[in-house]
Amino acid sequence: MSSPFDRSITGYAELSEWPYQPGYPERITSISFYRDGGTVGVTIQGKNGKGIEFFFERFLGRLCYGEYETKDHAAYIKKKSSFEKEVYLYFEKARKKLSPSFFQASDIDAFDQCFKKAKRYSGI
Prior knowledge:
This protein is about 25% helix and about 25% strand. The mean pLDDT is about 90. The chain has helices spanning about 80-95, 105-120; strands at about 5, 15, 30-35, 40-45, 50-55, 65, 75. β3 (about 30-35) and β4 form a beta hairpin. The radius of gyration is 14 Å and the shape is globular.
């Protein structure tokens, strides 16, 4: 299997397919905040039971794959790809299942704000 990462532009990796299959039903397992003043991390449940990490980058608000922008496997979600549509649909369904008994209202609100900004950026 070839790598789902396009690294043809140094420092600007793009991802065009799931690196690991997501779990169903759709589920967000954590929402985290980085000390950089704007990056928000989101982990979803993977099919194998392990988490798949994404983050909303702090500058334009893009939804990106990986733990953090400086990590080796961090990548932008390829715009206008079928993968981008799948990821946004997954997050849309998972958002509807976020429980205030598991997440703080402020965490859910921050996710909502980031998700709306990312959707505006991508045009979805």
